[in-house]
Fold this protein.
Amino acid sequence: MIPGLILRGVGGAYWVHEADGRVTAAKPRGIFRRRRLSPLPGDRVFCTESGDDDFPYTIEEIAERRNALVRPPVANLERCFITVALADPAPDFELVDKLGIICRVHNIEPLIIWTKTDLAPEELAGHRLQYTASGWPQYESSLEQQPVASLEAEIDGHLVSFAGASGTGKSTLTNALLGEEVMAAGEISEKLGRGRHTTRHVELFRSGRGWIADTPGFSQLELDQLGILPEETIQGYPEFEHYAPACRFPGCRHIQEPDCAVRQAVADRPELIPRYDRYTLFRELLEAEEPWLLRRRRGQLPPPGLPLSSNRF
């Protein structure tokens, strides 16, 4: 069978990138529909020749997934670059933390890129300090200097995505990594036969030995709509996870319980207070939801059983 990577899927048709760089249209076997399993951009797949001139390949198997998001529909994301502007727009730290929770719950590594640092350089140190204890990599970007080389190293061999509020520089950074002419609106892709950024579908773009996923709507995701459970909230706060095992009670919520190691750490380290306040906000919001409803909303796609063998792609 022919291994490949799904770059885009629209209306039941998929475009598969082969090891030699060719992009070929494909359709999945009917068995996927009967199993209520949809291939996704980012899926590693195995195809056979179909004999159909319009769709030369048939998708026979989907490799085991690292993760699968329903909204946006994408599989196997490894890293997410969360862009935060220092000004215009002002930083939205609730959004940053929400994206961090979503990433960690779905086995995606979050990284923070502080953009427009030239507009409010005096605020950068304080903002960075909030996230230092999380251990997440942090980068800086301005009009004069963009961390292209550093981001290229983070992308190398990985599937990544950008997320953040509108106007924070996601497109600017993506263009810098891919080349302005590649992302220019209205340009026709020779391989995919359509204009760039003319639809709102997820699509993968090659960047060195890695891939950048254009994932519209990532920043509009809500924790309850994704079915994030209250006890999973702390996964977006690794600095608190570090202290949690020392809490007196195994099921400690880290909000009002006595002898809570997390609360004690926050009391001892004032720089943790802003993130802790947002942790309690998100946890209490999710606790107000019905647990069964959150689990139903999760909608986690079942991973196919084929083991993923990276050297075949």
Summary: The longest helix spans residues 273-287. The longest strand covers residues 2-10. The chain has a mean pLDDT of 88. The CA atoms of residues 130 and 270 lie 10 Å apart.
